[in-house]
UniProtKB/TrEMBL annotation:
Region (Disordered): 1-42, 238-274
One Pfam match: RsbRD_N
Source organism of this protein record: Planobispora longispora
Residue stretches making up the RsbT co-antagonist protein RsbRD N-terminal domain: 62-193
Protein name as catalogued: Transcriptional regulator
Domain of life: Bacteria
Source lineage: Bacteria, Bacillati, Actinomycetota, Actinomycetes, Streptosporangiales
InterPro entries: CdaR-like_regulators, PucR_C-HTH_dom, PucR_C-HTH_sf, RsbRD_N_dom
Residues covered by the PucR C-terminal helix-turn-helix domain: 404-462
Length: 476
Protein backbone atom coordinates (compact mmCIF):
# COMPACT_ATOMS: atom_id res chain seq x y z
CA UNK A 1 0.00 0.00 0.00
CA UNK A 2 1.35 3.30 -1.00
CA UNK A 3 1.05 5.52 2.09
CA UNK A 4 3.00 8.44 0.73
CA UNK A 5 0.83 11.57 1.12
CA UNK A 6 0.78 14.75 -0.90
CA UNK A 7 3.99 16.75 -0.91
CA UNK A 8 4.57 18.92 2.20
CA UNK A 9 3.87 22.66 1.91
CA UNK A 10 5.66 25.38 3.82
CA UNK A 11 3.73 26.82 6.72
CA UNK A 12 2.29 30.31 6.17
CA UNK A 13 4.87 33.00 6.86
CA UNK A 14 7.83 30.61 6.63
CA UNK A 15 10.05 30.66 3.58
CA UNK A 16 11.65 27.53 2.32
CA UNK A 17 15.34 27.26 1.60
CA UNK A 18 16.16 28.95 -1.64
CA UNK A 19 12.92 30.95 -1.72
CA UNK A 20 13.22 33.82 -4.19
CA UNK A 21 12.97 37.50 -3.32
CA UNK A 22 9.83 39.55 -3.82
CA UNK A 23 8.98 41.10 -7.15
CA UNK A 24 8.98 44.81 -7.91
CA UNK A 25 5.56 45.33 -6.33
CA UNK A 26 6.77 44.07 -2.98
CA UNK A 27 4.83 40.82 -3.14
CA UNK A 28 6.59 37.49 -2.73
CA UNK A 29 7.64 35.91 -6.00
CA UNK A 30 6.32 32.44 -7.00
CA UNK A 31 8.41 29.50 -5.82
CA UNK A 32 10.04 27.61 -8.69
CA UNK A 33 8.48 24.21 -9.22
CA UNK A 34 5.37 24.95 -7.15
CA UNK A 35 2.86 26.81 -9.32
CA UNK A 36 0.98 29.63 -7.54
CA UNK A 37 2.85 29.34 -4.22
CA UNK A 38 4.14 32.67 -2.86
CA UNK A 39 6.40 32.99 0.18
CA UNK A 40 6.00 36.23 2.23
CA UNK A 41 9.04 38.51 2.25
CA UNK A 42 9.26 40.37 5.59
CA UNK A 43 11.45 43.12 4.13
CA UNK A 44 9.38 43.76 1.04
CA UNK A 45 7.24 46.48 2.65
CA UNK A 46 10.30 48.33 3.92
CA UNK A 47 11.91 48.31 0.49
CA UNK A 48 8.79 49.63 -1.20
CA UNK A 49 8.36 52.25 1.54
CA UNK A 50 11.91 53.43 0.92
CA UNK A 51 11.17 53.87 -2.78
CA UNK A 52 8.00 55.88 -2.04
CA UNK A 53 9.91 58.05 0.48
CA UNK A 54 12.64 58.72 -2.08
CA UNK A 55 10.04 60.04 -4.51
CA UNK A 56 8.73 62.43 -1.83
CA UNK A 57 12.14 63.82 -0.95
CA UNK A 58 12.19 66.48 -3.74
CA UNK A 59 8.78 67.71 -2.56
CA UNK A 60 9.89 68.65 0.97
CA UNK A 61 10.28 72.40 0.44
CA UNK A 62 6.93 72.74 -1.37
CA UNK A 63 5.25 70.58 1.28
CA UNK A 64 6.73 72.75 4.01
CA UNK A 65 5.31 75.94 2.50
CA UNK A 66 1.89 74.37 2.08
CA UNK A 67 1.87 72.96 5.62
CA UNK A 68 2.88 76.27 7.22
CA UNK A 69 0.16 78.10 5.29
CA UNK A 70 -2.50 75.49 6.20
CA UNK A 71 -1.31 75.48 9.80
CA UNK A 72 -1.61 79.25 10.13
CA UNK A 73 -5.20 79.02 8.90
CA UNK A 74 -6.12 76.06 11.10
CA UNK A 75 -4.30 76.98 14.35
CA UNK A 76 -5.09 80.61 15.29
CA UNK A 77 -2.38 80.76 17.95
CA UNK A 78 0.28 80.09 15.31
CA UNK A 79 -1.22 82.52 12.82
CA UNK A 80 -0.66 85.29 15.36
CA UNK A 81 3.03 84.52 15.86
CA UNK A 82 5.52 87.10 14.55
CA UNK A 83 6.18 86.60 10.86
CA UNK A 84 9.85 85.84 11.51
CA UNK A 85 8.93 83.05 13.94
CA UNK A 86 6.23 81.57 11.73
CA UNK A 87 8.02 81.74 8.39
CA UNK A 88 11.48 80.81 9.63
CA UNK A 89 11.41 78.86 12.88
CA UNK A 90 8.11 77.02 12.46
CA UNK A 91 8.96 76.30 8.83
CA UNK A 92 12.39 74.98 9.86
CA UNK A 93 10.78 72.62 12.39
CA UNK A 94 8.28 71.34 9.81
CA UNK A 95 11.00 70.82 7.21
CA UNK A 96 13.19 69.02 9.74
CA UNK A 97 10.32 66.74 10.74
CA UNK A 98 9.51 65.84 7.13
CA UNK A 99 13.11 65.04 6.27
CA UNK A 100 13.55 63.09 9.49
CA UNK A 101 10.55 60.89 8.68
CA UNK A 102 11.62 60.30 5.08
CA UNK A 103 15.13 59.48 6.25
CA UNK A 104 13.74 56.89 8.66
CA UNK A 105 11.55 55.49 5.90
CA UNK A 106 14.70 54.91 3.86
CA UNK A 107 16.08 52.79 6.69
CA UNK A 108 18.38 55.32 8.34
CA UNK A 109 18.32 55.36 12.17
CA UNK A 110 16.66 58.22 14.09
CA UNK A 111 18.54 59.19 17.27
CA UNK A 112 17.83 61.44 20.23
CA UNK A 113 20.07 64.08 18.72
CA UNK A 114 17.73 64.27 15.72
CA UNK A 115 14.96 65.39 18.11
CA UNK A 116 17.02 68.20 19.64
CA UNK A 117 15.42 70.87 17.44
CA UNK A 118 11.94 69.79 18.57
CA UNK A 119 13.04 69.97 22.21
CA UNK A 120 14.59 73.42 21.85
CA UNK A 121 11.54 74.82 20.08
CA UNK A 122 9.19 73.31 22.67
CA UNK A 123 11.08 74.98 25.53
CA UNK A 124 11.08 78.24 23.59
CA UNK A 125 7.35 78.11 22.92
CA UNK A 126 6.71 77.50 26.62
CA UNK A 127 8.56 80.71 27.53
CA UNK A 128 6.54 82.53 24.85
CA UNK A 129 3.26 81.42 26.42
CA UNK A 130 2.12 78.96 23.75
CA UNK A 131 -0.12 76.34 25.46
CA UNK A 132 1.07 72.73 25.33
CA UNK A 133 -2.12 71.57 23.60
CA UNK A 134 -1.57 74.11 20.81
CA UNK A 135 2.07 73.10 20.47
CA UNK A 136 1.24 69.38 20.21
CA UNK A 137 -1.47 70.13 17.67
CA UNK A 138 1.08 72.03 15.60
CA UNK A 139 3.52 69.10 15.71
CA UNK A 140 0.83 66.58 14.71
CA UNK A 141 -0.61 68.75 11.94
CA UNK A 142 2.06 68.06 9.25
CA UNK A 143 1.54 64.29 9.29
CA UNK A 144 -1.81 64.48 7.47
CA UNK A 145 -0.43 66.42 4.45
CA UNK A 146 2.63 64.15 4.52
CA UNK A 147 0.45 61.05 4.36
CA UNK A 148 -1.48 62.49 1.42
CA UNK A 149 1.82 63.14 -0.38
CA UNK A 150 3.01 59.57 0.28
CA UNK A 151 -0.23 58.13 -1.06
CA UNK A 152 0.01 60.34 -4.16
CA UNK A 153 3.52 59.05 -4.86
CA UNK A 154 2.65 55.38 -4.34
CA UNK A 155 2.19 53.33 -7.51
CA UNK A 156 -0.20 50.46 -8.19
CA UNK A 157 0.89 47.37 -6.31
CA UNK A 158 2.80 49.29 -3.62
CA UNK A 159 0.12 48.95 -0.95
CA UNK A 160 2.47 46.99 1.30
CA UNK A 161 4.87 49.93 1.29
CA UNK A 162 2.09 52.29 2.37
CA UNK A 163 1.19 49.95 5.23
CA UNK A 164 4.80 50.02 6.35
CA UNK A 165 4.89 53.84 6.10
CA UNK A 166 1.78 54.00 8.28
CA UNK A 167 3.55 52.02 11.00
CA UNK A 168 6.57 54.31 10.75
CA UNK A 169 4.33 57.37 10.98
CA UNK A 170 2.84 56.19 14.26
CA UNK A 171 6.36 55.68 15.61
CA UNK A 172 7.39 59.16 14.46
CA UNK A 173 4.33 60.73 16.14
CA UNK A 174 5.12 58.92 19.40
CA UNK A 175 8.71 60.18 19.32
CA UNK A 176 7.70 63.77 18.55
CA UNK A 177 4.97 63.94 21.21
CA UNK A 178 7.27 62.46 23.83
CA UNK A 179 10.18 64.82 23.05
CA UNK A 180 8.01 67.94 22.83
CA UNK A 181 6.03 67.20 26.00
CA UNK A 182 9.13 66.37 28.03
CA UNK A 183 10.96 69.54 26.96
CA UNK A 184 7.90 71.76 27.46
CA UNK A 185 7.14 70.45 30.96
CA UNK A 186 10.81 70.65 31.92
CA UNK A 187 10.89 74.31 30.93
CA UNK A 188 7.64 74.87 32.84
CA UNK A 189 9.30 73.53 35.99
CA UNK A 190 12.18 75.96 35.50
CA UNK A 191 9.67 78.77 34.98
CA UNK A 192 8.05 78.00 38.34
CA UNK A 193 11.43 78.45 40.00
CA UNK A 194 11.84 81.70 38.09
CA UNK A 195 8.51 82.94 39.46
CA UNK A 196 9.77 82.31 43.00
CA UNK A 197 12.95 84.27 42.31
CA UNK A 198 10.94 87.13 40.81
CA UNK A 199 8.74 87.31 43.90
CA UNK A 200 11.82 87.68 46.12
CA UNK A 201 13.40 90.23 43.75
CA UNK A 202 10.23 92.32 43.72
CA UNK A 203 10.16 92.37 47.52
CA UNK A 204 13.81 93.45 47.75
CA UNK A 205 13.39 96.16 45.11
CA UNK A 206 10.40 97.53 47.01
CA UNK A 207 12.57 97.92 50.14
CA UNK A 208 10.60 95.35 52.13
CA UNK A 209 11.89 92.62 54.42
CA UNK A 210 12.33 89.61 52.16
CA UNK A 211 13.34 87.01 54.75
CA UNK A 212 9.90 85.39 54.98
CA UNK A 213 9.32 85.38 51.22
CA UNK A 214 12.79 83.92 50.58
CA UNK A 215 12.27 81.21 53.21
CA UNK A 216 8.90 80.30 51.71
CA UNK A 217 10.47 79.72 48.29
CA UNK A 218 13.76 78.28 49.49
CA UNK A 219 15.84 81.20 48.20
CA UNK A 220 19.12 81.96 49.99
CA UNK A 221 19.64 85.73 50.32
CA UNK A 222 23.03 87.38 49.87
CA UNK A 223 24.33 90.16 52.17
CA UNK A 224 24.53 92.56 49.20
CA UNK A 225 23.93 92.72 45.48
CA UNK A 226 25.13 94.37 42.32
CA UNK A 227 21.96 95.89 40.90
CA UNK A 228 21.57 96.05 37.14
CA UNK A 229 18.92 97.88 35.18
CA UNK A 230 18.54 96.72 31.57
CA UNK A 231 16.71 98.99 29.13
CA UNK A 232 16.07 96.52 26.31
CA UNK A 233 14.79 96.54 22.76
CA UNK A 234 15.40 94.64 19.54
CA UNK A 235 18.99 94.76 18.31
CA UNK A 236 19.55 97.85 16.18
CA UNK A 237 16.71 99.74 17.87
CA UNK A 238 17.61 102.91 19.72
CA UNK A 239 14.05 103.63 20.77
CA UNK A 240 13.16 105.33 24.01
CA UNK A 241 13.17 103.28 27.15
CA UNK A 242 10.56 103.51 29.85
CA UNK A 243 10.64 106.44 32.27
CA UNK A 244 12.51 105.36 35.35
CA UNK A 245 13.67 108.72 36.55
CA UNK A 246 14.77 109.42 40.09
CA UNK A 247 11.28 109.98 41.47
CA UNK A 248 11.52 108.02 44.68
CA UNK A 249 10.31 104.63 43.44
CA UNK A 250 11.78 102.00 41.15
CA UNK A 251 8.95 102.03 38.65
CA UNK A 252 8.05 98.45 39.55
CA UNK A 253 4.32 99.12 39.87
CA UNK A 254 4.07 100.41 36.31
CA UNK A 255 6.25 97.61 34.94
CA UNK A 256 4.20 95.05 36.82
CA UNK A 257 1.04 96.38 35.18
CA UNK A 258 2.73 96.23 31.77
CA UNK A 259 3.92 92.68 32.41
CA UNK A 260 0.45 91.62 33.55
CA UNK A 261 -1.07 93.17 30.43
CA UNK A 262 1.42 91.31 28.25
CA UNK A 263 0.62 88.07 30.04
CA UNK A 264 -3.11 88.65 29.67
CA UNK A 265 -2.77 89.26 25.94
CA UNK A 266 -0.87 86.01 25.59
CA UNK A 267 -3.38 84.02 27.66
CA UNK A 268 -6.49 85.42 26.02
CA UNK A 269 -5.18 85.13 22.48
CA UNK A 270 -5.53 88.85 21.72
CA UNK A 271 -5.20 90.18 18.24
CA UNK A 272 -2.56 88.84 15.89
CA UNK A 273 -0.52 92.02 16.30
CA UNK A 274 -0.74 92.14 20.09
CA UNK A 275 0.04 88.43 20.48
CA UNK A 276 3.00 88.72 18.11
CA UNK A 277 4.32 91.65 20.15
CA UNK A 278 3.93 89.67 23.37
CA UNK A 279 5.93 86.80 21.85
CA UNK A 280 8.72 89.16 20.77
CA UNK A 281 8.87 90.78 24.23
CA UNK A 282 8.90 87.43 26.02
CA UNK A 283 11.62 86.19 23.72
CA UNK A 284 13.82 89.22 24.41
CA UNK A 285 13.35 88.92 28.16
CA UNK A 286 14.06 85.20 28.03
CA UNK A 287 17.31 85.94 26.19
CA UNK A 288 18.26 88.51 28.84
CA UNK A 289 17.49 86.10 31.69
CA UNK A 290 19.43 83.26 30.05
CA UNK A 291 22.51 85.45 29.54
CA UNK A 292 22.42 86.67 33.14
CA UNK A 293 22.07 83.10 34.42
CA UNK A 294 24.98 82.04 32.22
CA UNK A 295 27.15 84.88 33.51
CA UNK A 296 26.49 84.12 37.18
CA UNK A 297 26.38 80.35 36.80
CA UNK A 298 23.03 80.06 38.59
CA UNK A 299 19.50 81.47 38.26
CA UNK A 300 19.51 85.25 38.81
CA UNK A 301 16.79 87.13 40.68
CA UNK A 302 15.16 89.63 38.34
CA UNK A 303 12.00 91.64 37.83
CA UNK A 304 11.33 92.59 34.23
CA UNK A 305 8.58 94.42 32.37
CA UNK A 306 8.18 94.71 28.59
CA UNK A 307 11.00 97.29 28.25
CA UNK A 308 13.42 95.71 30.68
CA UNK A 309 13.93 95.92 34.41
CA UNK A 310 16.23 95.05 37.29
CA UNK A 311 18.46 92.08 38.04
CA UNK A 312 20.22 91.35 41.32
CA UNK A 313 23.66 89.76 41.02
CA UNK A 314 25.49 88.48 44.12
CA UNK A 315 28.57 90.54 44.97
CA UNK A 316 30.56 87.31 45.28
CA UNK A 317 30.52 86.83 41.49
CA UNK A 318 32.69 88.94 39.15
CA UNK A 319 31.14 92.15 37.87
CA UNK A 320 29.64 91.78 34.39
CA UNK A 321 31.88 92.91 31.56
CA UNK A 322 31.15 94.48 28.19
CA UNK A 323 30.77 91.02 26.68
CA UNK A 324 27.40 90.70 28.44
CA UNK A 325 25.93 93.40 26.19
CA UNK A 326 27.64 91.84 23.16
CA UNK A 327 26.16 88.44 23.99
CA UNK A 328 22.72 90.00 24.24
CA UNK A 329 23.22 91.72 20.89
CA UNK A 330 24.15 88.37 19.36
CA UNK A 331 20.81 87.11 20.69
CA UNK A 332 18.93 89.96 18.99
CA UNK A 333 18.61 92.20 22.07
CA UNK A 334 19.99 95.73 22.39
CA UNK A 335 20.49 96.60 26.05
CA UNK A 336 21.70 99.74 27.79
CA UNK A 337 22.74 98.36 31.16
CA UNK A 338 23.19 100.56 34.22
CA UNK A 339 24.91 99.09 37.26
CA UNK A 340 25.16 100.16 40.90
CA UNK A 341 26.25 98.40 44.09
CA UNK A 342 24.12 97.76 47.17
CA UNK A 343 26.48 96.69 49.96
CA UNK A 344 23.47 95.87 52.13
CA UNK A 345 20.05 94.58 51.17
CA UNK A 346 18.53 97.75 52.61
CA UNK A 347 20.43 99.74 49.95
CA UNK A 348 18.84 97.88 47.03
CA UNK A 349 16.02 100.38 46.25
CA UNK A 350 18.44 103.33 46.06
CA UNK A 351 20.88 101.32 43.93
CA UNK A 352 17.99 100.29 41.68
CA UNK A 353 17.03 103.92 41.06
CA UNK A 354 20.62 104.84 40.36
CA UNK A 355 21.15 101.93 37.94
CA UNK A 356 17.92 102.77 36.09
CA UNK A 357 18.91 106.40 35.69
CA UNK A 358 22.39 105.46 34.47
CA UNK A 359 20.89 103.21 31.79
CA UNK A 360 18.35 105.83 30.72
CA UNK A 361 20.96 108.59 30.62
CA UNK A 362 23.24 106.41 28.48
CA UNK A 363 20.41 105.58 26.11
CA UNK A 364 19.00 109.11 26.03
CA UNK A 365 22.44 110.57 25.39
CA UNK A 366 22.78 108.54 22.20
CA UNK A 367 25.39 106.13 23.51
CA UNK A 368 25.49 102.63 22.01
CA UNK A 369 24.07 99.62 23.81
CA UNK A 370 26.47 98.45 26.49
CA UNK A 371 27.28 98.28 30.18
CA UNK A 372 27.60 101.60 32.04
CA UNK A 373 28.62 102.66 35.53
CA UNK A 374 28.06 106.13 36.97
CA UNK A 375 31.55 107.32 36.04
CA UNK A 376 30.84 106.46 32.38
CA UNK A 377 27.95 108.96 32.18
CA UNK A 378 28.86 111.30 35.01
CA UNK A 379 28.32 114.62 33.19
CA UNK A 380 25.03 113.62 31.57
CA UNK A 381 23.87 112.11 34.85
CA UNK A 382 24.56 115.38 36.61
CA UNK A 383 22.94 117.47 33.90
CA UNK A 384 19.79 115.36 33.97
CA UNK A 385 19.32 115.87 37.70
CA UNK A 386 16.03 117.46 38.77
CA UNK A 387 16.10 121.21 39.30
CA UNK A 388 15.53 124.57 37.66
CA UNK A 389 19.13 124.90 36.46
CA UNK A 390 18.88 121.69 34.45
CA UNK A 391 15.72 122.90 32.72
CA UNK A 392 17.29 126.30 32.01
CA UNK A 393 20.43 124.68 30.59
CA UNK A 394 18.41 122.29 28.42
CA UNK A 395 16.45 125.19 26.94
CA UNK A 396 19.46 127.41 26.28
CA UNK A 397 19.73 126.31 22.66
CA UNK A 398 16.05 126.86 21.85
CA UNK A 399 16.95 130.31 20.50
CA UNK A 400 18.99 128.81 17.65
CA UNK A 401 17.57 127.99 14.23
CA UNK A 402 17.99 124.39 12.93
CA UNK A 403 21.03 125.21 10.78
CA UNK A 404 22.96 126.71 13.70
CA UNK A 405 21.98 123.87 16.01
CA UNK A 406 23.03 121.28 13.45
CA UNK A 407 26.37 123.05 13.03
CA UNK A 408 27.02 123.06 16.79
CA UNK A 409 26.22 119.34 17.05
CA UNK A 410 28.49 118.50 14.12
CA UNK A 411 31.28 120.73 15.46
CA UNK A 412 31.30 118.98 18.84
CA UNK A 413 30.99 115.55 17.22
CA UNK A 414 34.08 116.35 15.10
CA UNK A 415 36.08 117.36 18.21
CA UNK A 416 36.12 121.02 17.12
CA UNK A 417 37.67 120.31 13.72
CA UNK A 418 36.06 122.89 11.41
CA UNK A 419 37.10 121.12 8.18
CA UNK A 420 35.65 117.78 9.36
CA UNK A 421 32.53 119.66 10.41
CA UNK A 422 32.26 121.25 6.97
CA UNK A 423 32.60 117.85 5.26
CA UNK A 424 29.93 116.36 7.50
CA UNK A 425 27.54 119.22 6.69
CA UNK A 426 28.50 119.52 3.03
CA UNK A 427 29.39 123.22 3.33
CA UNK A 428 32.50 125.40 3.07
CA UNK A 429 34.67 125.77 6.24
CA UNK A 430 34.02 129.52 6.15
CA UNK A 431 30.32 128.78 6.45
CA UNK A 432 31.05 126.78 9.60
CA UNK A 433 32.99 129.74 11.04
CA UNK A 434 30.16 132.16 10.28
CA UNK A 435 27.54 129.88 11.85
CA UNK A 436 29.63 129.33 14.98
CA UNK A 437 30.06 133.06 15.39
CA UNK A 438 26.32 133.68 15.01
CA UNK A 439 25.49 130.89 17.47
CA UNK A 440 27.98 132.24 20.01
CA UNK A 441 26.51 135.75 19.73
CA UNK A 442 22.96 134.48 20.29
CA UNK A 443 24.01 132.35 23.25
CA UNK A 444 26.38 134.84 24.81
CA UNK A 445 29.14 132.25 24.71
CA UNK A 446 32.48 132.56 22.92
CA UNK A 447 33.20 129.17 21.36
CA UNK A 448 36.90 130.08 21.16
CA UNK A 449 37.19 129.86 24.95
CA UNK A 450 37.06 126.93 27.34
CA UNK A 451 34.17 128.50 29.21
CA UNK A 452 32.09 128.83 26.04
CA UNK A 453 32.90 125.28 24.98
CA UNK A 454 31.90 123.87 28.40
CA UNK A 455 28.64 125.82 28.49
CA UNK A 456 27.51 124.92 24.98
CA UNK A 457 28.64 121.29 25.35
CA UNK A 458 26.63 120.97 28.56
CA UNK A 459 23.63 122.59 26.87
CA UNK A 460 23.83 120.14 23.97
CA UNK A 461 23.96 117.19 26.39
CA UNK A 462 21.04 118.54 28.42
CA UNK A 463 19.02 119.09 25.24
CA UNK A 464 19.57 115.47 24.10
CA UNK A 465 18.51 114.17 27.50
CA UNK A 466 15.45 116.42 27.55
CA UNK A 467 14.41 115.11 24.11
CA UNK A 468 14.96 111.50 25.19
CA UNK A 469 12.82 111.86 28.32
CA UNK A 470 10.01 113.90 26.79
CA UNK A 471 11.12 117.16 28.35
CA UNK A 472 11.27 115.79 31.91
CA UNK A 473 15.02 115.68 32.47
CA UNK A 474 16.05 118.45 34.79
CA UNK A 475 12.53 119.82 35.00
CA UNK A 476 11.21 118.12 38.13
Amino acid sequence: MDDSGPPDRAAPGVSEPGAPDSDASGRAAPQPGVPGLRVPDPDAGARVAARIAARCEPLVNRLTREIVAEQAAAVPAFASLPERVRDLEVAASVRHGLRLFLRGARGEPVTGRDLLLFRERAAQRMTEGVPLAVLLSAHLFPYRPLWRALCAQARPGEEEGLRHLGELMFQAIERAVSAVSEAYLGQAALAERGEALRAVARTLLAGQDADDVAARYGVVLEPGYRVLYLAVGPAGDAGDAGDTGDTGDTGETERARDADAAGSAGRSGGSAGSTGLVVEVRRRLHTVQAELDRHVGEPVMSWFGPEGGHALLPLRVPAPAARLARSLADGGVAAHIGTAVAERRADIPAAARRAARIAEVARGGGRPAGLYELRDVLLDYHLSAPGASGAELGGLLDALDPALLETLEAYFAADFDRRSTARALGVHPNTVDNRLSRAGALLGADLRTSGGILLVGAALAARRLRAATGGEAGAR
